[in-house]
Amino acid sequence: MKITRAEVEHVGRLARLALSDEELDSLTGEMDAILDYVEQLKTLDTDGIVPTAHAVPMENAFRADEVKPSFTPEQALSNAPDASENAFRVRRVIE
Amino acid sequence: MTIHDLTLAELRARLDNRELSAVEVTNAYLERIAATNPDLNSFITVCNETAIVEAQAADQALAAGEVAPLTGLPIAVKDIFNTAGLRTTCASRILENYVSPYDATAIARIKAQKAVIVGKLNMDEFAMGSSNENSAFGAVRNPWNLEHVPGGSSGGSAASIAAHQAAAALGTDTGGSVRQPAAHCSVVGLKPTYGRVSRYGVVAYASSLDQVGPVTRDVRDSALLLQAIAGYDSADSTSVDTPVPDYQANLTGDLRGMKIGLPKEYFIEGLDDDVRKAITDAAATYKALGAEIIEVSLPHTAYAVACYYLIATAEASSNLARYDGVRYGLRDENAEKLIDMYMQSRAAGFGTEVKRRIMLGTYALSSGYYDAYYIKAQKVRTLIRQDFLDVFEKVDTLLTPVAPTPAFALGEKTDDPLQMYLSDIYTIPVNLAGTCAMSLPCGFSAKGLPIGLQLIGKPFDEATMLRTAHAFEQATEWHKRTPKF
Questions:
Q1: Taking CB atoms and an 8 Å limit, are A55 and B306 in contact across chains?
Q2: Most buried in the list B122, B206, B258, B315, measured by CB within 10 Å?
């Protein structure tokens, strides 16, 4: 086994995904099969190989620090599930 | 002449000589969509009102002599592009009611030319899938055979062009999502080099792999649409500031001196016999056209799918963290605590495949596994990219299958995610390497399902790739076949 049900449960909490018992069961089997498949990468010798994060060679992309038009508060809040006084409103954060 | 059977280039000529108006063209397409969408389900949103307003503006521009290459042409876009004032769902419940406050750069560029956006196309949820069965709005069906998938994730894009519901479409390609559905629906799909087209305003799946691409009926239209969207954009710092050549001017038909490579690792066990024969025949056509065919090797091909499903899922788990029910998207109103609101909103909003990929990516990035999975995959990505750079020292273009089989049946692979992932084995390496590739029609299986060939070009040399594609298209009739639909 590459991954246990308890580990899947832990990863679910890291990913902020509430998972049902059925989902935990199926994900454990599916993730185990996928992790078993990707195991083949370990057969490749990659000592001294530089990791590729980005396929096009590129330096830092700098730009001038200029003020440009951006969203109005109304636009920024236009899809908010709940908003009040030009802010997104959520449940109490601090107990 | 039936209006909806005309290509972009043919419509352009008829709009310019006033044989047709943009409103007439738009109405013809809206009628075609209304008549065919119940069977195909390729559209999530049809722009019945806004399209007519845009067409009227295009007609005014035409009357004033202010004509751009796309003025008045009916284009549909994958529902992954932010489109101001229109719903952008990404085929997910979590964005079901999200209305974009702004346009993606690719959308702004076609709008600047007064193209008419006829609708937003169905797709696999968050572009995760190879069959378009992972949509919260239902599966798309293949116009060539309604019991088969159109491919994915831009399944709506390919199906709509094959069924003449729009003259051209925009899709996105992270591991083959433009090319594979194009092959399954017998249309032309192009994935530009990473950095060629701005990703600004495209809902992110895997940011180091995602790229916007045109889906069209022929190669000339592909060149026309790519021309409109290509080029540097200051809003996407990964777009590359390099000149965009005149793609249509490159369609000369001249293949003299062209070297085309056949990578031997792409012609292995598991490749369907009909597909193998169609690609072998295409190589013979190229030889007859004066190209030199050379067998080459991309030795790390077999590792690409494993590499991709670590890198793409890791990036996805990070990108999709933004769907937390706070600023936009679905919120579970019953949760008492903030963390429960996150966990339950995401549980309710995401579909099965999206959850699976977020989980896999979160695991690959988690403490203790990061080096073994994520960094290892990035190192293998270097080897895969180097394979392509090496082979492009010897040849100009590569010729390969797009997919190992023609379109599979609806439901055939939904129970086995790994089998579904392996259907992208010939398209994924290109995204990892960051270069350009395209799919074009090259035959049909014994059962009458389309087969596509893939041309892979050198980084930022879409022009040579398009010329190579165009020459094949001129020598064959496959692109002229349409589904009896």
A1: no
A2: B122
Domain-embedded: residue B149: yes
The β-bridge relationship of strands B116-121 and B43-46 is antiparallel
* Overall number of domains in chain B: 1
Pair of tokens at residue B419: 């089998």
3-class DSSP assignment, residue B229: helix
Q: Where are the beta strands (DSSP E) in B21-65?
A: 43-46
Class of domain A5-43: mainly alpha
Q: What is the pLDDT of residue B189?
A: 98
Task: Indicate which of A52, A74, A93, A95 best probes the interface with B, i.e. most B CBs within 10 Å of its own CB.
Answer: A52
Closest CA to B441 of B235, B161, B37: B161
Q: How far apart are CA A77 and CA B326, in angstroms?
A: 10
Domain coordinates in residue numbering, chain A:
5-43
Which one of B131, B153, B160, B423 is the catalytic residue? B153
CATH at residue B126: 3.90.1300.10
Q: Is B458 a catalytic residue?
A: no
Active-site annotation holds for B21: no
ipTM confidence score: 0.96
Structural domain that includes position B53: 3-257
Token pair belonging to A23:
């989902």
Residue B324 lies in a domain: no
B433 token code pair: 């390497």
Nearest CB to B101 within list A7, A17, A78: A78
In a domain, B474, yes or no: no
CB contact under 8 A, B379 and A49: yes
Q: How confident is the model at residue A57 (pLDDT cuts 50, 70, 90)?
A: confident
CA-to-CA dists, residue B473 to B31, B285, B477, angstroms: 30, 10, 7
Q: Per DSSP, which regions of B33-79 are E strands? A: 43-46, 74-78
pLDDT in tens, B155-182: 999 999 999 999 999 999 999 999 999 9
Residue B83 belongs to a domain: yes
Residue B292 parent element (H or E): strand B292-296
